[in-house]
């Protein structure tokens, strides 16, 4: 078999991505090797997806076992892995019911449709407003990208879905002023991911809960990026002590295998009657078997406590780098979702930091042009954190010297 190269991307792929020059071919734990055999410390986690790193034995075992049983059934049937996973998610959260799909975008699409269906069924067609926040990100379908508060992702595709209002994040006064009896739902990321790794204030989420109750609206938490242990709790709403009506989950849920889920209550779920929504691959036995293994590992108290310990180590390391080089305004975030906000002299250069880091053998992310994002495996060894930080500091030093 002939080896493919980075040039093949430009030749055969739609140019909506601009991938790095190297091609990873093998991973183990929190280390990755490219075609040339070069090693990288993975502090990116496939954009907060590889929750247990690469080739975790529990996930490989679950996938292999299920792969030798049954791969797919239509949604006119059900399957054991889907029912086991749904039962574990219900037992571990506020939810009574689960809908499975393939991605965070699909989970949010389902959540937004269900919220409007619930509101219109109960209150009529006028109750359809969705309130979201500026700089939010909820997926790439046309509906979800419009609910997301970043016009750069939604402009240029013609008329947008109507009835969507964007407000400043963490602004209780703006939310209070915008709410009405026409509001169907308020959609919030407990930590804005693509918007710059910006955590919500507890008072803001509490106010959103109270306002939704006052106006008969639903509170939706998009936990695609924060869910399944990323913040040090199984879901971030548990950290805040604010319970949503609908929660969406993906990314870490599959540990790298595509799966999404929407969680909600009996009262709301009944408005998705037979035929009202669906997903051909949703609840796929392979995906659900892997995700069940992820939940089994991540929900262990020692795993979640380990996330908090690793948070402290990564945060203190980044702050020490900044003390020596002065490239960040601040480092913020929760658990193993951290964002280093670039100082004024480096604004707009997050991709430069990402590229320089790769040259030093460490994989990091950006969250917009001004924030370097870190989302490693939840079980990354502390030695890999230390080595990753050492390599990242070499990249920082090289940029600071220019």
From TrEMBL:
Pfam families: Aminotran_3 (PF00202)
Cofactor or coenzyme needed: pyridoxal 5'-phosphate
Reactions the enzyme catalyzes: N(2)-acetyl-L-ornithine + 2-oxoglutarate = N-acetyl-L-glutamate 5-semialdehyde + L-glutamate
Domain of life: Bacteria
GO terms for MF: transaminase activity
Residues noted as binding pyridoxal 5'-phosphate in the record, renumbered to the chain: 104-105, 137, 222-225, 280
Pathways involved: Amino-acid biosynthesis; L-arginine biosynthesis; N(2)-acetyl-L-ornithine from L-glutamate: step 4/4
EC code: 2.6.1.11
Protein name per its UniProtKB record: Acetylornithine aminotransferase
């Amino acid at each position: 078999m002939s080896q493919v190269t980075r040039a093949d991307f430009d030749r055969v792929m739609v140019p909506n991505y601009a991938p790095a020059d190297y091609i990873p071919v093998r991973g183990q734990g929190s280390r990755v090797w490219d075609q040339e055999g070069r090693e990288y410390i993975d502090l990116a986690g496939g954009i907060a997806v590889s929750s247990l790193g690469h080739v975790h034995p529990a996930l490989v075992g679950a996938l292999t076992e299920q792969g030798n049983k049954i791969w797919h059934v239509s949604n006119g049937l059900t399957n054991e892995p889907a029912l086991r996973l749904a039962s574990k998610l219900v037992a571990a959260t506020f939810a009574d019911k689960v809908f499975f799909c393939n991605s965070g975008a699909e989970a949010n699409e389902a959540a937004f449709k269900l919220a409007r269906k619930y509101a219109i069924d109960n209150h009529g067609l006028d109750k359809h407003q969705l309130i979201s926040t500026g700089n939010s990100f909820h997926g790439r379908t046309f509906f979800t990208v419009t609910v997301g508060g970043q016009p750069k992702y939604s402009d240029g595709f013609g008329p947008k879905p109507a009835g969507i209002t964007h407000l400043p994040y963490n602004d209780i006064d703006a939310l209070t002023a915008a709410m009405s009896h026409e509001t169907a739902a308020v959609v919030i990321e407990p930590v804005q991911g693509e918007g710059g790794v910006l955590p919500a204030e507890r008072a803001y989420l509490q106010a959103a809960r109270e306002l939704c109750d006052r106006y008969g609206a639903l509170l939706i938490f998009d936990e695609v990026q924060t869910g399944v242990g990323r913040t040090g709790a199984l879901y971030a709403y548990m950290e805040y002590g604010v319970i949503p009506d609908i929660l969406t989950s993906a990314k870490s849920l599959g540990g790298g295998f595509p799966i999404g889920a929407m969680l909600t209550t009996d009262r709301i779920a009944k408005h998705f009657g037979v035929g009202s929504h669906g997903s051909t691959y949703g609840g796929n036995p392979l995906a659900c078997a892997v995700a069940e293994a992820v939940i089994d590992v991540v929900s262990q108290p020692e795993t979640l406590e380990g996330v908090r310990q690793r948070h402290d180590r990564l945060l203190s390391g980044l702050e020490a780098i900044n003390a020596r080089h002065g490239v960040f305004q601040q480092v913020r975030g929760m658990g193993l979702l951290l964002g280093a906000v670039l100082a004024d002299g480096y604004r707009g250069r997050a991709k430069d930091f990402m590229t320089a880091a790769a040259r030093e053998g460490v994989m990091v992310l950006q969250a917009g042009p001004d924030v370097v994002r870190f989302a490693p495996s939840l079980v990354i060894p502390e030695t890999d954190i230390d080595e990753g930080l050492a390599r990242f500091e070499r990249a920082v030093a090289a940029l600071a010297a220019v």
